[in-house]
From TrEMBL:
Cell location: Cytoplasm
Domain Thioredoxin stretches: 1-127
Record flagged with keyword Glycoprotein: no
Main location, first listed in the record: cytoplasm
Name of the featured protein: Thioredoxin domain-containing protein
Top-level taxon of the source organism: Eukaryota
Length: 127
């Protein structure tokens, strides 16, 4: 089995019930996925999180629920300690931070565990 860097499918999709939340463990895989997403009109919700973050743990089941409900939206979990470069690129300074991206452009940014606000913004940018 040779390593195929262009194989984006090898990213670890989260094994939670919805199976719709992607997690990235390398900057290269994230960059390849992000660059590819610029060609689509799909809304991406980037969830910047950390294993030690209490509010992030609180938001986990809510993100699971949204991922199951909004099947046309791509939910991506990024651990700020694992992918510091990506966190810096998006100027993440507190967790959780949710960044909504369309065609490679940031359309909204929410800092904190604000589930209602996040859902409103997802609804707003769905189309």
């Amino acid at each position: 089995m040779g390593a195929n860097l262009s194989n984006i499918e090898s990213t670890h999709a989260s094994s939670h019930s919805s199976g719709r939340i992607l997690t990235f463990h390398s900057n290269a895989k994230w960059k390849a996925h992000f660059d590819a997403s610029k060609q689509t009109n799909k809304l991406m919700v980037l969830d910047f999180t950390a294993t030690w973050c209490g509010p992030c743990k609180y938001m986990d089941p809510i993100i699971q629920e949204y991922a199951a409900k909004y099947t046309k939206v791509e939910f991506i979990k990024i651990d700020v300690d694992e992918l510091m470069g990506v966190s810096q690129e998006f100027q993440v300074q507190a967790m959780p931070t949710f960044i909504l991206v369309k065609k490679g452009k940031v359309v909204e940014k929410i800092v904190g565990a604000k589930e209602e606000e996040l859902e409103k913004l997802i609804e707003k940018h769905l189309n």
